[in-house]
Design goal:
Blueprint: H1 2-18, E1 22-26, E2 29-33, E3 45-48, H2 56-66, E4 73-77, H3 80-92, E5 96-105, E6 118-120, H4 122-135, H5 142-159, E7 162-168, E8 171-181, E9 184-192, H6 201-215, E10 220-226, H7 231-237, E11 240-251
Parallel strand pairs: 3-4, 9-10
Antiparallel strand pairs: 1-2, 2-3, 4-11, 5-10, 5-11, 6-7, 7-8, 8-9
């Protein structure tokens, strides 16, 4: 399990740093910047690799220093115990708190879905991506939804991300993304439009991505889920097991929410 986590974290460093325009060493870890998309929250943040003795106040001050021109703040603490210690202080400071889990596909997918899944280009899936962004986290602003979708084009160009989707009556209804580096693959951004849910679309998309990843040599296939949200239960049914948890602390721009 430890070896899997080490490989996942190495993969994440590759993905985060290869899609950043700047990387700066911090006393607590690594600051990642995407100057092309400064409003993209998950591309402009402090990744904390050394939080053993850090306080929330110190991390907030460091993030304010590094991201003084940014409208938001985001801190990712990979060590679960350190994040658990810090969470109450971030809560008192008014930050949003997310406890996330790395899940690795280790068991059988279960019964095969009869839903057809196709591989799409970024341009084909972009309208669906934008629509799901507008509905996610309680509803993104139009600007945030468009930014998050535009970032995905960069991801596709830089990392070779692949997109898989399901059509219902000719309309794209749900999709997911596959990233791979060496022998580690990540499933990301699995979404189904609300009016098409409960049709097995997410199950079918995840199953297709797992098969594609195995077919190109992935030894570890993982995803990140909210430890307190229902999709984690779906992924468990599809053979994914938790290997570790981490924390994300976010201070959104005034009037916005990460969720």
């Amino acid at each position: 399990m430890t070896q899997d986590l080490d490989r996942i974290e190495a993969y994440l460093r590759w993905r985060e740093e290869s899609t950043s325009t700047r990387v700066e060493v911090s006393r607590f870890g690594t600051a990642l910047f995407n100057d092309d998309f400064p409003a993209y929250w998950d591309g402009n943040f402090l990744r904390v690799d050394n939080a053993v003795d850090a306080t929330a106040e110190q991390l907030i001050a460091e993030t304010d220093r590094l991201f003084e021109d940014s409208s938001h703040r985001e801190i990712v603490v990979l060590d679960d115990a350190a994040g658990s210690r810090l969470a109450p202080s971030f809560g008192r400071e008014g930050w949003e708190i997310d406890h996330l889990v790395f899940m690795v596909q280790r068991r059988d997918l279960g019964h095969a879905s009869g839903v057809a899944v196709e591989e799409c280009t970024f341009d084909e899936v972009h309208p669906l991506m934008l629509e799901t962004n507008l509905a996610s986290h309680g509803g993104m602003t139009r600007e945030a939804a468009e930014t998050n979708a535009a970032v995905r084009r960069v991801f596709a160009d830089v990392t070779g991300a692949r997109f898989f989707a399901v059509r219902v009556d000719g309309v794209l209804a749900g999709f997911g993304e596959l990233y791979r580096h060496d022998t580690v693959a990540e499933i990301d951004d699995v979404h189904t439009l609300g009016r098409f849910r409960r049709r097995g679309i997410a199950r079918a998309v995840v199953g297709r991505i797992v098969r594609e990843a195995r077919g190109v040599g992935a030894e570890i296939i993982f995803l990140i889920a909210d430890d307190a949200d229902w999709p984690k239960e779906l992924y468990t049914k599809l053979g994914f097991d938790p290997v570790s948890r981490f924390w994300q602390f976010t201070k959104p721009p005034e009037g916005e929410s990460y969720r």
